[in-house]
Structures
1.
Amino acid sequence: MPRCVTLTMMQLSEAFLVLGEEGFARLVRRISIGKLRTYQVYEGLKTRTHLPRINTENLRRVAPRLWTRLAGGEEDLAKELAQAVLVSHLDMIQAILDFLGVPNQNGFFDKNLDASSWLTEGWPQRVWEKFHDQHPDEALLLYINHLGWELAKQPEVFRPAA
C-alpha cells in the first residue's frame, strides 16, 4: 500500500516569533513610514494592525498586541508586517540577493522565480555569516526566513549557528 507523506512548510508568523518579543519590538521600531507610502504598503498595514493612523509611536504602542496575534498564527498580519519591514530594508535585501546570485531589480525578483539553483544547501547560514555584522540581526533573520518561506519553501525556521 502506498504511503502518503505530508511535508509541512513553516508559517511566516514563525519567522517573527523566532525573534522573541523584544527583538520583534525592535524590528517594528525600524519600519520606515516614508517607505510604506513609497511602496504602497501603508494602507494594507494600517488595515491589518487595526490602527487609524500608522506612525512610529502607534506601531511601538501596539507591538505587544501584534506579537500576541502573530503568536496566534495570524498569517495575513505576518505577510503585511513582513512587507513593511522588508521595504524598510531594501538595501540589505539587494545585497543578499546579489550575494546569492539571485536575479533581481533593486531587491525585487520575479514571483515565479525558481531559486533552487541559488538557494543551495546551507545558504541561510552563509547569508547570516556574511551580513550579521552589517545589518540589524532582527531584520536579517526575518529576511532569511522570509526568503526561505517565499522561494525555498523551507519546512522550518532558520536559527543561526553560534
2.
Amino acid sequence: MKTTRRKFLAGASLLTLAPALEAYPMKKEKPVLVHHVFFWLKNPGSKEDLAKLIAGVKSLSKIETIQYIHVGVPASTEQRDVVDNSYSVSELMFFKDLAGQKTYQDHPLHQKFIAECSPLWEKVIVYDTING
C-alpha cells in the first residue's frame, strides 16, 4: 500500500491529539441541567419573524444563571429518518442546578421574551435533562 504525504500528515495530526485528550480526563461533574427548546414559527417563511425570534432568544443570555447559551437554526445536514429539522429556532442552555433554571424561568427578561415573542411561534417543545 502506497503512503502519500497527505495520508502521512493526516495520521501525524491525529497522533498529536492523544496528549490533548489525556489533559481532559473524564470525571464526574456536579449536576448540570440542560434546557433545550425548539420553536416553530407561525410564519416560517418570514425572515423578519425569524430575526425577531433569534434576537429575543439571544437577549436571554443576560440572565445571570445561564452558564452557556447556543442559539441555532436547522443545519443543512444529510436528510435521514431520525433527523427532525422542521423547527425554526433552537436554544440550548446550561445551568449549574435546578435553582438556576428556576431563576431563569421566573426572571423578568424571560417573562418579557415570552410576552414579546410568543405571538411569533405556533409550537414550542422543551427538553430538560440533568446529568445521569
3.
Amino acid sequence: MTKTINPDRLTYEKARSWGYFFHRQTWHLLALLVLVPGTWLLARPFLDGSRWLGWTDLTWFWLAIGLAVVHQVVVWIVFRLQIGWATLTRVFGRADLVIWGILFQTLLTGRIAAIIGLGQTTQNTLPVPRTLALILAFILLLSFAYLIWSVFKYFGLVRAMVGDHFRIKYRQMPLEDRGIFKYSSNAMYTFGFLVLWAIGLIHLSVPALLLAAFNHIYIWVHYFCTEKPDMVLIFGDEMDQI
C-alpha cells in the first residue's frame, strides 16, 4: 500500500509568507540586469546571422538566455512554494517529484541544447588552436563525467534536484563528502556547468563560451538568492557554514 504524504510536515512556518517567498529576489533581478546586457554586448560582435536548423545565431543566443532565466525563475517559484506551502505535493500528491523531475530536466536539457545551437552558428570565432581547445574541453568533460558518476553512486538524482523540498528523508541525510563531493560541498554548481564551457571550446565559439560564463555565474546567483536560504532553513547552522 502506497503511503500518503503529509504536506504540512514539509513546510516551515518562517517560509509561509510572501516576505520569505521574495527573499533575496531583488538581488536576483539586479544580477540579471547586469548579466544579460553584459553578455549581449560582448557576444553581439560575433553574431553574423549564420543559421543552424533554420534558426539564426541571434535566435539561439536569446533562446539560451531565455531558457536559463525561465529555468531558474521556475526553480525559485517551486522551491519557495514547496518550503512554505508544499504546493506541488498538495496538488499532485506522490507524483509531485515526477512532475518536478520532468519539468526540471526538460528545462536543463533545453539550456544545453541552446548553447550547442549557438556554438554551431558561431563556430571558429575563438582564435585559439583547435587542438588546445579540444584538450581543454576533454579535461572539462572528464570533470563533468566524474560529477555525474558521483551523483548517481553517492548522491542520487532525486536528491540532486533538491529532493529535500519534497521528502523528509532527504533532510535527514548527512552532507555528502564522497566522490567529487570531497573537493566541493556544492560540486554540482562548481563542476556541473563545465559541460557548457566544453561545448564552447569544441565549437571554438566565443558566444557559446560567453553563455557558459553567463550560466555558471547565474547558477551561483540562484544559490545565494534562492537555494542557500532554503538550505539554512532546512539544515540550520550546518549549512550556514558553507
